[in-house]
Structures are given as C-alpha cells and as structure tokens.
Amino acid sequence: MRKIFLSIYCLFTITAMVTAQANFVKENFTKTETTITMRDGIKLYTVIYIPKDESQAYPFLMERTPYSAGPYGADNFPRSLGPNENLMKEKYIFVYQDVRGRYMSEGTNLEVTPYIANKKSKTDVDESSDTYDTVDWLIKNIKNNNGLVGLAGISYPGFYATACLPGAHPAIKAVSPQAPVTDEFVGDDANHNGAFFLLDNFSFMNFFDMERNGPVKDYAKPVFNAGSKDAYQFYLKMGTIKNTNGAKYYNNKSVIWNEYLQHDTYDAYWRARNIRPHLKNISIPTLVVGGWFDAEDLFGALHTYEAIEKQSPKNNNRLVMGPWTHGAWASNDWNKFATHEFGSNTSKFFQDSLETTFFNFYLKDKGNFTASEATVFETGSNQWKSYDVWPPKNETPVAYYFNDGNKLSLQKTTTQNSFDEYISDPAKPVPYTNGIYGRRNNEYMAEDQRFAALRPDVILFETEELTEDLTLTGRISADLFVSITGTDADFIVKLIDVLPDNEPNSKNAPRGFNMAGMQRLVRAEVMRGKFRNSYPAGPGGEKPEAFVPGKITEVKFDLNDVAHTFKKGHKIMVQVQSSWFPLVDRNPQRFMRIPDAEEKDFQKATIRIYHDAVNASKIVLPVLK
Amino acid sequence: MKKYCLLLFICCISLLQLTAQNTDSAWVRDNYYKIERMITMRDGIKLFTAFYIPKDSSEKHPILFNRTPYTCSPYGEDKFNPRLYASYWINYLKEGYIIAIQDVRGKWMSEGDYVDIRPFNPNKKGKDIDEASDTYDAIDWMINNIPGNNKRVGVFGISYPGFYSTMAALSNHPALKAVSPQAPVTDWFIGDDFHHNGALMVMDAFNFYSGFGIPRPKPTMTGKPGYEIHSDDNYDFFLKTGALKNFSKIMGDSIAFWNDLMNHPNYDAWWQSRNPRNFVTNIKPAMLVVGGLFDAEDCFGAWNLYKAIEEKSKNTDNRLVMGPWFHGGWGGRSNGDYMGNVRFGSRTSEYYQKHIEIPFFNFYLKLRGTVHDIAEANIFFSGANEWKTFDQWPPKNVEYKNLFIKWDGKLSLDNPNVFKPEDRAKRPESFSEYISDPAHPVPYTQDVHLDRTREYMTDDQRFASRRTDVLTFSTDILTDDVTLGGPLVADLMVSLSTTDADFVVKLIDVFPDDFKYDEKEFGTGNGKDYPMGGYQMLVRGEIMRGKFRNSFEKPEPFVPGKITQVKYTLPDVAHTFKKGHKLMIQIQSSWFPIADRNPQTFTDIYHCSDSDFQKSTIRVYHDVNNQTKFILPIIK
What we know:
The structure holds 2 protein chains of 2 kinds.
Chain A: H1 2-19, H2 24-28, E1 29-37, E2 43-51, E3 58-65, H3 85-90, E4 93-98, H4 127-141, E5 145-154, H5 156-163, E6 172-178, E7 191-192, E8 195-196, H6 198-208, H7 231-238, H8 255-262, H9 268-272, E9 286-291, H10 298-311, E10 317-322, E11 336-337, E12 340-341, H11 346-364, E13 374-378, E14 383-387, E15 395-403, E16 407-409, E17 419-424, H12 450-453, E18 458-462, E19 470-484, E20 490-498, E21 519-528, E22 553-566, E23 571-577, E24 605-610, E25 618-624
Chain B: H1 5-11, H2 15-31, E1 32-40, E2 46-54, E3 61-68, H3 83-86, H4 89-94, E4 98-103, H5 131-145, E5 149-158, H6 160-171, E6 176-182, E7 195-196, E8 199-200, H7 202-212, H8 234-241, H9 244-251, H10 256-263, H11 269-272, E9 286-292, H12 299-312, E10 318-323, E11 338-339, E12 342-343, H13 348-366, E13 377-381, E14 386-390, E15 398-405, E16 411-412, H14 421-426, E17 431-436, H15 462-465, E18 470-474, E19 482-496, E20 502-510, H16 519-522, E21 536-545, E22 564-577, E23 582-588, E24 616-621, E25 629-635
Parallel strand pairs in B: 3-4, 3-5, 5-6, 6-9, 9-10, 10-13
Antiparallel strand pairs in B: 1-2, 2-4, 7-8, 11-12, 13-14, 15-16, 15-25, 17-24, 18-23, 19-22, 19-24, 19-25, 20-21, 20-23
C-alpha cells in the first residue's frame, strides 16, 4: 500500500544516494520554500530546487505529494532530486508540493480528490485547479524557466500526476503517472472488485489519516498503536470490520476509514473518485508506468493508460509495464524478484531509455523519444517487447475450460451436472501467503501456490505439459458458474505457471527452496460475488445482488493484464478459492453490508464450481498468436 | 531415517570441532589399533566384527559393544571409524575402552540371513539362534579372545542398534554388565518407525525399505541406495503415487519386509512376536534406556521399553533418560540446545554424556565412580527447560485431570457440561465437524520439501490451525505454569459419515504474542529469525487408525453416523506450559505424508485401490452425553 510505498521509496532513494555524489543537490541547486496561493485563497507549501547554473533556461519537473515535500528548511537538502539520477544531472527546476490539506499546506485533504468537471466558482477546487494555479505561479515567478512543465509521481503522487490532465494548464507538456491510484473500488489499493483490502489499508490509514490541526512538518502520532508479527492471527482475532473502529484501533478517529466503511458499494462517493471518465481529449504526452508485481496499483497503471487511449485516441500516450513491485522502477537495480531472474537491469533500462528521454524530449526538446506505444517486459521469457498497441493486435482470447479430474482444457466438457465443491469457512480463511508475516509479504504475487493447492478449500485445474511456448499479452477473464449455500461469497481466481519437475533453482531462490514443480503465481484477482452483475463499473454497482442459495449463477470478472510466456514443458494451472486472508477481508457469506456484520453473521458456505456442458466455467486467456 | 545416520552425523561436524578432531584423530591412531574378525556363532554362521583396542596394556579394559545393520565400516584394519574421534565416543577411548562394532547377521560383511526385528526366541534349543544368542556368542568369543579385556562388557546403540541392545540384554551373558538401548526400535506396529497405532508411516517406510530392504545374497562392503524420488515435494509424490499397492509396484517383489508390512495389516501373532516388550523378563545387566522427547522415529520405543522392563523385570537396575532431542541427538549429532525453532537454553546432549551415560558405563564396566547421582528417571522438561529427576516414571505426584473440549473452541479443566440448564437444553447435541478429504490430506509440516524433517516434532502448527479440516481447541491464557509428565490420553467421541477414519491429536504450546527468545539465555538456536510470537509449538502428536480403536488385532468398521468412542494413549509428555502461554489441542484426520492416507472405507488399506478413497465428514462431540476429553498427567 501507499505506506509501504513510502518505505520502499525511501529504500530506493537511499540506494540512489550511494551512487549520486553526496552533495550534488546542495552544490548544484538553490532551494526555495514558498507557499503558492490557490484561487480559493488556500496556500500550498512548495519546495523548489533551481539549478545554480544560469546559462540556460530550465523546464519544471514537479511531484505533488501527500507524503511531505520535505525535507523542510533552507539548509536541509535531499540526497537526490527528481524521478531518476539522469534527470537530476540533466538539471530541471524540481518542484515538490504538499497537496491540499497535507503536511505544510493549508486546506482540507480529500481522499482521492474528486474532479469537478464544471467549475462554477473559485471555491470549486480540485487537484486539476491546484496544479493549474501552481503551474501558473511557477512560470510567472521563478526566474530562468523555459515555460514548460512536467509532472511525475508514483502511487498517490501518480494520482496527482494524472489529476492535472483534465483542464490542464497549457504549460504542462509531459506527464508520467506511475502506478497511479486510479479506482479504489474496482482495482486499486482499497478494494478490488468491491472486496476490501484489509491488510494494506488497516495499517496504511493508521499512519496516513493522522490528526492534523493546520499545517505540520510532522504528524504527531499514528491513530493507534497495534500490530503483530502474525497478520493472519491478528486480523482473524480482530474479527469483524466493525471491530476496526473499536477503542483499541480507529475508534472513529479516521475520517477516511469511516468513509471506506460507509461506502461499501460503487456509489457516488467512489464514482467521484474514479478519474478515468475525465481523461478525454487529453493532448499532453503521457508516459504511464506500472509493475506486473505491483500489489497496490497495477490496475491503476493499466486502466489509466487504457482510459487515455480510448478517450483521447490522438494523444501521445505510452505505456511501460515492467517486472516490478510498487515503484521498483525507481530503484537502481532490478534484475531479479522473488524467484524470478530477469537477465538485465530492468529499472535502469526504464530510467535511461524511457523516462529520461521522455522528459528531455518534451520539456527540453533534446534528443528523440522513439519509444513504442507499449514497452512491456514479458515474464517467463524475460525480455522486453514493444507493441504499437496494447493489448497487441494479434492477441486472441482463448477459452480454457475447467474439466473433471482437475483438468484445464481447450475442450468444453460434455458431461452433465459436473462440479467441484469446497467449504469456505470464514473462521479458517485461505491465507494469501505461506508462512507467518506481520506485514504484507511483498512477494506474494510471485509466490509458490503449493501451500494453497493442498488445502481442501482450494480447487485447481491444470493443463498437460505444454508442447510449445504460450505467450499471453493482455487482460484475462474468469467466467465461473457457481452455486453457493449462502447468499454471498468471494471468488479468487489465480493463474499459475507450474514449473517442470526438473526446473533448476534460480540464483536467488531462497535457501532450502526448490523451484522444481513450483506453482508460481502469474496473476490473481478477487471478485466479491454480490457485485457480479454490476461489473465492471456498470450502473448496478450501487445495487449489489444476493445469490439464491443453490442456484447456478454466473460470476464473470477480469484479472489484470499479463505479459507472460508459459514455456514449453510448463503447465497452466488455475486455482479457485473463496478467501484470500488477510489481504482481503472475509466475506460473511451472507448478503449484507459487510461493515455492519457481526461475528454471528459469518457462516460457512459450500461452494460449487460447475464444469459441465451447460455450465462451463472457464478462464479466457489473451494468447499472442 | 536411520540410513541417514552416518551422513547426518558427518554433516553435523562443525568447523570449530574439526581442529579438535584432527588432534583427537591423531591421538586415537597413536593409542589404538584395529583388528577385524569373523566370529563364529553357534550355528556356524560368522559375523564380521571390528575391534579398536588400546595399545596400553598396563590395565585390563572393558568392552563397549555396538551391533548394527548399518555397517561397521570403514572396512580394513588401517581404517578408523570417525565416530571414535569425532563424537563424544572419544571420551570412552580416553578412558581406555575397547570398542567393538559388529555387522549383525545377514548384513554387510556378516554371513547368514537377515531378518528384520528378528523375533526373540525364549525357548532356544541347540543351534537355534536369535539376536540375543548372536550377542551371547559374540561376547563369549571376545572376552576370551580380545587381548587385555577385563571381561566386562557393555552394549549400546541408537535406533535399530537400540533394538539390538535390547536383544543383547535378553542374552544375559554373565559378562554383560550394562546395556543402554537408545531410541530402541521396539514396536513397529504400535508406535515406532513404521506404524503408529496401526497407521503406516508410509514416507519413512517407503524411503527406508526401498534401500535397506534390497536383498544381499552375499557379504558385501557396499550398500545399495534406495528408490530415488524424482521430485522435491514429498507431499506431491506420495499423493500422486496414491494407494499403497502402487508403492508396492515401485518396490517390486524382492523386498521381503515391505511384503511383510503389506501382508500383516493387523497386530497379529507375527507382529506380536516382534514386540520385544513381551520378552523383557529377568534382565540381569543394568539398563539405561535413552530417548528423545522429539524423536520422530522411536520416541515410543524409549518410553515404553523402560516401562515394560519396570513391569516385567522388577529386579532389574533400570533407568530412563529422556531429553529434548531428535533421533539420536544425544549421541553426538547435536548439542541439544535447540530443536527446530524451539530453544532449550543449555547443551543438553553434553549434559547427558558427561553426567549420565559415561558415569553409567564407567561404574558398571570399570567399577569406578558412582551411579548414585543418576536417578531412576532423568527427564528434561521443555518449556521449563530444566532437567528433573524422579524415582519412578510417571512420577508419583502426577494427578490425572480431564481437559474438556467445548463448543466455543475452548479447552477447560472444568466439566463444561455444567451449563446453565437452559443452555443445556439448547445444545442437546453439540459437535464440531470437518470434512476429511483424502485428496487434500493435512500436511505434517508447512513447506515443500523432499526428506521428512525431524523438526516437525516441534514445528509451528499455525499452518494447520488455519485449515478447514483441522479442529483447534485452546485454553485461556494460563495464569500459572502447568507441567505435564506422563502419558496423554485422548478420549474422543466421534461420528463419521463413512466406515473408517484416522484421528491425529496434537498437543500444542501456544507462545505469548510478544514472545521472543533472549539470545543471552537461549543462544541463536537454528539461526533463523522465525516469528515466535504466537508460535504454536507441537509438544506431542499421535495418530490412531480408527478401526483399531477397540483392538489392534481385530479391526472394526465404524457405523456411519453413530457416535463412537476412540480412546488412545499418546507417548509420554514432559513439558511445562508456562504462565502466559496457552495449551492447545488440534484434531485432524490425516498427517501426510508421514502417515498413509486412510481411504475412510473399512478395508485392507494395503491392497485397496485409489477408487476406495472417499471424503468423510467427521464430527467430534462436546455435549452432555458425548464429551470429548483429554486426560492430562499434571505434575503437582
């Protein structure tokens, strides 16, 4: 989540520091701290680093952040500036701004500030207008600027980068939303398909939504002091979502937490916080960046790109997807992750060949920016691929049907009334990871799923060994025919690459771990069953629907895109389960407002996944021909 | 398993020790010589025996004798066994003991036919032989032929050699003065190695016998490797291979004992003749029975051989030592200061060697020192992490108290049926249930791996708590220490939807949420930074094959749906649940792949088909009429 992002970001910055000359920033930049007055009179705290070398005019490169524009104070310099070291050395006027209502800025912070399309007065402010007013002030007041502005940011700052696009100031010429928070009900951070991401958010909001009475350099203290080295145990013991507001925890002290609990459907609150519909007629070059192993905003990267592409087809809009965790493209070295070895330094490639050239070209008119529409790292085969459209033109959806005997097959079965069933027990939810972790295991998106395969509440289907490589590029769709004994249930579908029994260990495989036969997770997603008919983001989103116990019902949903090659000799596996704990909160399996659920509302359910001639559950894979 | 003995032993040698060993190795070669002899048994068969003899002839030396099916190698009078200098055995050499190691009949360089756990014959006539007579004949030969011996012999051995030690004791050769069966293989149907309460310990049995059981028509210096599993995942291999008859196919016809295992599904006369406990009467030598509380192989054997001798050979000078060890951990394979993630705060193996075993043999074989300080029972209590001594085992001051499971997942020492009447009316029948699915058996340990771990005996059981097919009951946080010493009885009231099922009961110590080992007191253990807060330490686990609930000889099917008592005894426990901890019990119906899967159909499991395996809904009752409970041996 975004807090984790912070610590990761710090880590990257620290490693970056080592290579950067220690005092480069102080020696080469003049620091100015100022407040910039917005149209409604609110002042936003802004820290500006101006190159000392005045022989040329510079463009601005800005990050707007809720995580502090600090270090504050004229004598305090960060060890590095900007999205990467090349850009720092290239020299831009680097601007960091505390967004409205955060740290040293005045005003009130809103969760993922809604965009106001038709602003009627000076009090109609949003992130677009705040960016506009800031840019306007900067180009008029900072000497030696070339009148061009770029924005970049990762995660929440990625959202602030996106948010400047509709109604943008004409001086803004290049924007790079990176892992941008985009739709927190459908796919980012807070919820995936309406299922609440308990683990990340419970710990994040404790440090994000702390008490603030006016501008502060540092928030005093977290909302509560609690934690555990065993998250599964901690959240299971805590019990209901309601209990998160108990005296020991949020105790109604977090506004945003209460908003999350209040808005348990895709209602006006969440719709207002979906920036995608407003990304139309954009004419600012965009470089959207995301990571295949980003546990927080993978959806945001893919869907921000898609929304711009569809609604602003003429825009210079590009997508970069690499084998990265949340923000890992900003690290110095990223040639491996979990048991993956990528064979090259993927983050350096991105910084040198894409990010630096993008800003240099559009803001300094320097060099060329020749990147393809989509630059995508293909896991499994471990290579960068370029496409002129994403998903690629020659991608074809291919249905793989669930079959008897745990088989996954291109053929639909002819048997009648065939199903697999399991009991989903909210008292014993399926863990999202193997082992005891206090925080989210950052490697869970590439983790061996054998621990899950041997549970009775996880069912699986797998192909024979592939006789040739199979490459997937694009979105995956799961189409399940289910019946349940309760009135609601979650469905988690996991796409898994089963490595051969003779797979050698990669260099970074943990000691004692054997990769032979590993069930490596490629992509997974959860669907909260009651939203099945309002998906995706359809008009029914505010009206979840109960299941009729025992009635066969279709549950269809998308999994985020992949670019992955299943190598010859590997097998494709799909696992289906009804909990993913404590990553996702438990579904009581009773149709109701889950934030109101009492302990007694949680009930076991028998879940059937049908795979017969009539009700042919399947997964549809984007096969590259 | 035992075949790993030597390998593990060699692996355990740390760098630091190596220098000392080099010195010791040189010392041994300077002060000892080796001879190899074929000793003729009463039936003419010759057994290969290696002797390491002190060059010093200023005094007579006692003989320490080890009989083994795992080879007395290295062969050749110029080659010395590293155990002599790389383990605590060096202490015996410094004391001038003669060390004798013998290949048992039919193994390695000895002649004759090998018979696994060869039955003791109490009525031998003429040239009849058994392991006791072989030991007798060997001792007789060596006291008369080995130069400089004092005609006092001690026998010791770990695991299978522990069995041969028991058999040695039954020889009652007058020169045999002291015997120490350690982790002695004792009853392969009830509790050691290959069956626990009639459930086949399939992983150990298959892995062991695929190599150990290969026929050896002639004496040889080389062994044959076992079946190589082409997988890194024992769970997957054993699940995929399926029914036991498929394992028999892999084994082929030639492995006699595997066939015996398959052909004796019940505790018949064949098995009973292979239970040394039936024969431990009138034992003359002093006995020191040694075992590990966390021995995955022969924990049962140690506890129960001691008890059998107590019962059947009352005049024997019989002692018991149980420490916090894995199989053979006390015998030079570990310091005994940790086991898996659990730490004990002291080097328990060294304590045992210095204060118990060496003084024991010195006293009986060298007539030196005293055994006054070695109590009847010397038991290390994990949890409390201290040695305690007792003049009997189980101790006199044990109070057997019922621990009840409750409908709300709690365990209580108070009878939970003392409900308010209205509550009782509401719950005339109360049970917890799960579905036991042979296609998804409960794993015995968390991670993917090939070789059976020894650490599973103290592993964190949180992975199991989180499964839908494991029932978990726990006490409230304990306000006082609770110390258990003695056998734990599980008294389950169950019903199944099918005609057979297994029951696995696990006694667990739940550590406090903020628990951490203080390195000053506990060292660094296995060096892993495992999250110990909330750790669910397995203290004792045992399986019961349901159909044997009334008799191991005559299995009985369950009547589907009928509430049935399944009562069995787990191997003894010596553990203190500290104040602030919780006592937990888990119940499950598989423990895979250490135990084979029960098809959950009443049938001959050794010959049934994959299609005989079916899901069973298991209910465990906790109501007025049918109250599941456990009987705890609480030390006052």
